[in-house]
């Protein structure tokens, strides 16, 4: 009686293993390839950008520190977008990269103009730097949790979302703690435009995630 009971179970187990093997070995557009983070060019840009921002001297003047930091942060987005234009193939993501480069170069110019005419002001506001640091650390944790595929279009869409989100959170901090109309206007512009771009990347990934 026991032998008769075991045979169907054994057959079921073998059938399940066969189906799992076939599924895992499937080599088509639904399969998921993974690339080590330290081998990914997009991730390298993110880490290099973070090192530069960490090394930036903090003045505790929110408008000064926001402007200096966003120049570095925007340059990271430009570098990632240029890599997308170099290696990416999807027309929509390439178009987005072109738009990001144009918008963020223009914003860098406005930040630099502000910095050229600005003198550090008191009272100091250390709360801004605390919020900025929190946003950037959150960005890098989110990046490190991403499944990186080595597909430039997908990696760009994934990592740029985290990059944009940190800019949005830091820009909200300048709206709350900043003192100057120009930095606040730039902060609101960044929030509005990058929220729309995050939505575009999310919708694209839902259609093109590859698994």
Automatic annotation (TrEMBL):
Entry keyword Signal: yes
UniProt KW Signal keyword: yes
Domain DUF305, chain residue ranges per copy: 63-205
Protein's name in the database: DUF305 domain-containing protein
Superkingdom of source: Bacteria
Leader sequence residues: 1-22
Keyword annotations from UniProtKB, A to Z: Signal
InterPro entries: DUF305_CopM-like, Ferritin-like
């Amino acid at each position: 009686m026991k032998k008769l009971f075991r045979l169907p179970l054994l057959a079921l187990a073998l059938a399940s293993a066969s189906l799992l093997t076939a599924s895992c070995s499937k080599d088509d557009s639904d399969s998921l390839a993974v690339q080590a983070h330290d081998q990914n060019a997009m991730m390298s840009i993110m880490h290099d950008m973070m090192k530069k921002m960490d090394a930036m001297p903090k003045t505790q003047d929110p408008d000064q520190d926001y402007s200096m930091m966003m120049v570095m942060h925007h340059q990271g987005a430009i570098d990632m977008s240029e890599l997308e234009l170099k290696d990416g193939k999807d027309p929509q993501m390439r178009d987005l990269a072109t738009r990001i480069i144009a918008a963020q170069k223009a914003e860098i110019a406005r930040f630099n103009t502000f910095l050229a005419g600005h003198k550090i002001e008191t009272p100091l506001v250390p709360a801004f730097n605390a919020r900025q640091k929190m946003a950037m650390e959150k960005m890098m944790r989110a990046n490190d949790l991403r499944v990186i595929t080595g597909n430039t279009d997908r990696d760009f869409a994934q990592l740029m979302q985290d990059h944009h989100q940190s800019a949005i959170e830091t820009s909200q901090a300048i709206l709350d703690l900043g003192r100057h109309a120009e930095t606040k206007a730039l902060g609101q512009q960044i929030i509005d435009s990058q929220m729309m771009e995050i939505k575009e990347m999310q919708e694209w990934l839902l259609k093109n995630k590859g698994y």
